[in-house]
Amino acid sequence: MTDQPPLNPADIDTAPPVLTEVNGALPADEVEIWREKFIDLSSRYEALEITFDTYRRREKAGDILNTLIVPYSDNIFKFMVFYSVFVGCVLLMNSGGRFPNPISDTVMSFLVGSTATTVLGLVGMIVGGIFTGARKAGD
Question: Strand, coil or helix: what is 139?
Fold first, then answer.
């Protein structure tokens, strides 16, 4: 075991109020070894801290993107539903003779086809390009 006496809680009351210096100093070569170890640990700590900050920023960016994607995707869905209902109503009203001057079939097909292609292409580019590109850049 050890050569030291057992610990007693009453020793706290008899302990000196100030610590005295140790009677022996470390040799110079041992001080240098400990200094080098301290410097090495400090540099490792700084490198790990930088890495940790990088990962924390990536996680934060991912959280921000998630909060932005949800309302935007909801708005895209609402717009697409509204657009589809509007075009469907125009088609049904035109085919039912509800307009005083009916729209020609050529104009209707051009209107529906070009607008649908533009809207679907735009939505596809935004959803596929921006959000996917942002996630790849954040990873």
Answer: coil
